[in-house]
Amino acid sequence: MQTVIGRIVNDAKVSEVKDGRKVVNFTVAQNSRFKVKGSNEVKQVTNYFNCAYWMGTGIAAHLKKGMLVEAAGRIGVNAWQNASGEPKASLTLHVQHIQLHGKAKTTDATVISEPAAETVNEDLPF
Known about the structure:
Number of domains: 1
Number of strands: 6
CATH superfamily: Nucleic acid-binding proteins
Order of helices and strands: EEEEEE
């Protein structure tokens, strides 16, 4: 089992296959940084993983663009030729476990208010 930690590229989408089963599809971008040998130049490589989660669709509402997510499962590779004959490939993660890490990054200045604090009983023995 492989674990991928990265940010979700777009909001998750639920799709239905021919036999009626539903799948949650989303893409995770994982950044890697490294120094080029013999220099101080830092390179960044981004890998994109097309994720498929078959164990329930309820999670889709929580998988929003920009959210940091940890997804574990089996990695597969899809290879094909595009219309002009060029070879193409993509990485697919067949997700068995998802863990959300915080909220999605937002670019707008929206302030989310927290619910009012509950009344605290001052008669507690501790």
